[in-house]
Write a structure and sequence with these properties.
heterodimer; A: alpha+beta; three-stranded antiparallel β-sheet; 43% helix; B: alpha+beta; four-stranded antiparallel β-sheet
Chain lengths: 148, 361
């Protein structure tokens, strides 16, 4: 896999990991019925999140988060991995299915129907919080701020 | 003497049934849903995740419901559940410089790139009870202002430029993990930070406050406090690259503290660090004060013999699950132990009585 493909796959797997519960399967629609065999059935586990001492220093263990993962193989032999935050086995299955289908000739349709809507929703949610935060930014009226 | 140890089953079952009924409370009042707790008691959920040491808002909300709002009991449930999970691996260290900040304030610079962003804070409220909240159905909309998401630089970077503050650089070491090996002393800073981030909020606050009142000297300014979401990235061995496996809200506090210097090095500010799951700035500020106090040896400061400088005292007493486990176990049957005490005191009294009679004769 070339670097571009790897970056592309990293991006969609990250998008799928953060999708709201049930959303991926909804967006997949009929494609959620695609046949596959399990390589690793969905399992719930944890990942130890690390931080950096002082924000920039060496790592320390901050605490764990729940993660659900699985791996499957499409009938055509393509392998998909699903890693999602939280404890939803159905979501990890849907994520793995999308990961696999993105490596087939259905990629374009999957991108349009699943990835793009997820990305748009995540970007909009982030933008909304950014705008709300910006509204609470202090304007000191006795001082000129450098940037404005 | 042997004491019967069986026979409480029916009483226990009935006690638990009554507990379940009490948990539900008055059935004419609508039942609280886990989603309601997750959405409307978010700061309680955050505390349970931080001290339970497991980031999962749904589970934390469920634990709060099951524990009837007893947060330490809820933390206990989360800690117990956590031990049942297989560990898939460790994340790469989260980059708080890339945090999507919802709140970001500095007490040391008024004007700074990125600005003072207050976020959803209790600060500047009048702490007057709002009886409007007792009436249902109020919907409030937050204000918005045009802005594009952007990385916000850390305040300490500005001080670093002049060499005014100690810098921290990453080293490729595997940090110790107190969920895998028991806490042993001396504890390096990475282990202390892990213990502090999951330690009891009240205990950590008390320790931090004690340094402010003079039991140890941290003289801390909040250089920066930021709250927001950061991406969690992990290397996936079967793929051979890292992916984002989720996003967590964190509160980070960096304090700027008074100086150290030596013959070879001019004086520099020192730092304390706090990083906690969820929106929890009281805990995060407390953590950074206690972190700084515990670094006295590193900076060649005097041991003043105060609690906050004593790593053993702080680290061994800050875990509320260990503490409550040991504290509450004394209410459980100690019939045999106490029988021994009874026999001892009777013997001592008999001896004393014997001596008194001898003296009288």
């Amino acid at each position: 896999m070339g670097q571009m493909e790897t970056q592309d796959r990293q991006a969609w797997m990250g998008l799928l990991a953060k999708a709201p519960k049930g959303r991926i399967a909804d967006l997949l629609g009929d494609r959620a019925e695609t046949g596959f065999e399990w390589l690793r059935k969905p399992e719930v586990g944890s990942v130890m999140i690390r931080g950096r001492m002082g924000g920039t220093g060496s790592a320390f263990n901050l605490g764990e988060m729940t993660v659900t993962r699985c791996a499957l193989k499409l009938e055509a032999g393509v392998v998909g991995h699903g890693y999602v935050q939280g404890r939803s086995k159905a979501d990890s299955e849907a994520a793995a299915l999308v990961d696999a289908l993105m490596q087939t000739d259905q990629a374009e349709a999957i991108r349009a129907n699943v990835l793009t809507p997820l990305e748009t929703a995540q970007r909009e949610a982030r933008a909304l919080r950014t705008r709300k935060a910006a509204a609470t930014k202090v304007d000191f009226f006795t001082m000129a701020r450098g940037e404005d | 003497m042997y004491v019967a140890v069986k026979g409480g089953e029916r009483a226990i079952d009935n006690a638990h049934a009554w507990l379940a009924e009490e948990r539900r409370g008055d059935t004419t009042v609508a039942e609280l849903s886990v989603d309601q707790i997750k959405e409307q008691l978010k700061l309680a959920v955050n505390r349970v995740m931080a001290e339970g040491s497991l980031y999962d808002p749904d589970l934390a909300a469920l634990a709060i419901k099951q524990a009837r709002g007893d947060l330490i009991e809820a933390i206990f449930l989360i800690r117990a559940y956590r031990t049942t999970l297989p560990r898939f691996g460790n994340s790469n260290p989260v980059e708080t410089s890339k945090m999507a900040c919802e709140r970001r304030i500095s007490a040391i610079f008024k004007d700074l790139p990125g600005g003072q962003v207050l976020g959803p804070t209790f600060d500047y409220t009048h702490r007057l009870l709002d009886f409007k909240l007792a009436a249902e159905g109020e919907e409030v909309q937050a204000a918005e202002r045009d802005a594009e998401p952007a990385d916000v630089p850390h305040v300490t970077e500005f001080l670093n430029k002049e060499g005014l503050i100690e810098e921290t650089f990453p080293e490729e070491t595997t940090p110790p993990d107190l969920t895998r090996e028991p806490l042993e002393l001396p504890a390096e800073r990475a282990l202390r930070l892990q213990a502090l981030t999951r330690s009891d909020e009240g205990f950590t606050l008390g320790m931090a406050y004690s340094t402010q009142r003079g039991y140890g000297r941290t003289h801390a300014f909040v250089g920066e406090l930021r709250i927001g979401e950061v991406a969690v990235e992990m290397e996936i061995p079967e793929l051979g690259f890292a992916i984002e496996i989720g996003e967590v809200t964190l509160t980070e506090c960096e304090t700027v503290n008074q100086f150290v210097g030596s013959k070879s090095q001019p004086p520099q500010f020192t730092r304390g660090y706090g990083l906690v799951f969820g929106q929890n700035e009281r805990k995060s500020i407390s953590m950074s004060l206690v972190d700084r106090a515990l670094r006295w040896e590193e900076f060649g400061e005097d041991n003043e013999g105060v609690p906050a400088q004593d790593a053993e005292f702080v680290l061994y007493h800050g875990d509320n699950i260990q503490a409550t486990g040991f504290l509450e176990h004394i209410k459980l049957p100690h019939y045999v132990d106490f029988q021994a005490e009874l026999e001892l005191i009777r013997k001592l009294r008999a001896e004393a009585e014997g001596q008194r009679q001898e003296a009288a004769e």
